[in-house]
Amino acid sequence: MTVEQKRYRKFLSKKIQQLNDIVADLDSLVTEIGSDFYRVSIFGSARIKPDTAEYKEVYHLAKLLASRGVDIVTGGGPGLMEAANLGAKEGSNHSRSFGLHIELPFETDTNLHLDVKYHHRRFSSRLDEFMRISHAVVVTPGGIGTLLELFYTWQLMQVNHITPRPLILLGSMWEPLLKWMEEFPLKRALMDQKDFNSIILVRSVDEVITKLEPSIQDFYQKAGMPIPTATVAGMPTATTTTPPLASDPAAPAGSAAPIVPPKTTP
């Protein structure tokens, strides 16, 4: 590297740091202003196919949440992201389906069930967008990308870089991960027992609804909005009970309760 290149690199690095500070300030300001809409980010694998129990479960979860006045946010891709966005579209005419798309060589376009698209070139800005526009996170089965999203959310809550929010792990695959973390990082005092207080482990869609309802209702009550019965695609719906996953025969089933208002798109 020449002397001139070193100077140029140092100059650009300084400018990047300045831009990072500006983005952080803007992010804090937008977060402080808040939103009129309760939004749930649903993370999960792009590889899971529509004919699987996991796909159908995530679709049903998003549909139930949308019927309760909740916007759904995903990465906008295929698999469980598509399931969630499709469920959001079919769950209500009032809730919106968000996709935060990332440029990947093997995933060139979004799924077809989005009302709002945001495009990102880097995972870092995309992760921050998820945190900025969401009030709760549900993590469904997934691989490295889903683990990144889970641990990013968890770590930001641990260090108080984002406000506390429901962080729900749905499905049987997460329990062994948590046990491993208790067995190794926790036993070596590399994390605190209280860190696990941020995690809510559930086995069924109805448990997710039950865990989120207090947060959803509190959000809309503070906004001064009425709480009507749930609606699907503009029609009132009865309370439903979700069967457990075929892969989780022992999963408990509960009842979903009435909830929050439909809303208008700004």
Features:
alpha/beta; 266 residues; 14% strand; Rossmann fold; seven-stranded parallel beta sheet; single chain; two-stranded antiparallel sheet
SSE layout and pairing:
Layout: H1 3-33, E1 38-43, H2 53-66, E2 70-74, H3 80-91, E3 97-102, E4 116-120, H4 123-133, E5 136-139, H5 144-158, E6 167-170, H6 174-186, E7 199-202, H7 205-222, E8 231-232, E9 235-236
Parallel strand pairs: 1-2, 1-5, 2-3, 3-4, 5-6, 6-7
Antiparallel strand pairs: 8-9
Q: Explain this structure to me?
A:
This protein starts with a helix and ends in a 30-residue tail after the last strand. Strands 4-3-2-1-5-6-7 form a seven-stranded parallel β-sheet, sandwiched between helices. The chain has a two-stranded antiparallel ribbon with strand order 8-9. The chain has a single domain, classed as 3-Layer(aba) Sandwich (Rossmann fold), CATH 3.40.50. The longest helix has 31 residues, at 3-33. Residues 236-266 have low confidence and may be disordered. It has seven helices and nine strands; from the N terminus they run H-E-H-E-H-E-E-H-E-H-E-H-E-H-E-E. It is globular and about 65 Å long. With 266 residues, the chain is an alpha/beta fold.
Using the coordinates shown, work out and report the CATH topology.
Answer: Rossmann fold
Helix content: 40-55%
CATH architecture level-2 label: 3-Layer(aba) Sandwich
The overall strand count is 9
Give the overall silhouette: globular
**C-alpha end-to-end distance:** 52 Å
- Rounded to an integer, what's the Rg over CA atoms? 20 Å
